[in-house]
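Example complex used in Figure S2.
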Amino acid sequence: RLSAILFIFITFCMAGNTWAQNPLIMDQFTADPSARVFGDRVYVYPSHDIYCSENNGRKNWFCMPDYHVFSSEDLQEWTDHGVILSQEDVPWGDPGANSMWAPDAIERNGKYYFYFPTRTKGASSGESGFSIGVAIADNPEGPFEPEEEPIKGVQGIDPNVFIDKDGQAYIYWSRDKIFGAKLKDNMLELASEPEIFELPKKGHIEGPWVFERNGTYYLTYPHVANNIERLEYATGDNPLGPFEHQGVVMDESPNNTWTNHHSITKFRDQWILFYHDSELSPNFDKNRSIRADSLFFTEDGLIEKVIPTHR
Ligand code: FUB
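Predicted assembly (311 residues):
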């Protein structure tokens, strides 16, 4: 009888998302997880939060010096492959800015392209002072070599890259609103004029993540609706829209974390939402920790709201 109860309990926990052990990384602060499946492992490219004093950036603000990449075959045990890119390595970046914000990575023709925003040397403050660079590697864990110049025609943060079934690549980014454009085959230059997606009508939106499922394109994003971010989504028939706002993927953080930043990917036949929260740093919400929970769709292709699991 006890083993039957235990079995039911474990099955309930699995169905309720405890596939992953949250937070995923316990020995450092991590945020903005972009997750990709390469081979039989899931790789997460997060940003890396530290705490700034007056001397190394803006005190009490985001302080992000470099990127590590982590991988796992079961979402339980994670390998830290170490630093793949630091602020000082970026030829066009402001070396003292500690501004290595939310990145993304994607594979094309056996090369791995790592997209990262950082403040440009001598740029004004604010998101328009950020450009988006690309670093290239032969393996998902690097070493990554940054390009000499950022992508022309892109000012902003939170890059996300999507490659459609026909091979056309797209890049999305944010600067209060979400922008998107086609990428050339070299993955380094825009192939179309940027388009602006104004969804929803009011409030700050950032952190785009696009994926396709059964012919529907999902544009998912954090939206500041009530002071802090909640994850929302829109759908369309085309990677560049138009997109129709659909609803909420995840409510605002129970820990009052101002940001949430996410990715959605399918790993071992299960859709998974990667996101962050500041559960490990209750008094400072710019020191965040990445997390993962299963994500499900209704029969109509709508996203069921994800409820975060805790340890
Ligand atoms: O991590 C720095 C910024 O906070 C990201 O670029 C935003 O998406 C938000 O998570």
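The first strand starts at residue 29 and ends at 38. Confidence is low (pLDDT under 50) at residues 5-18.
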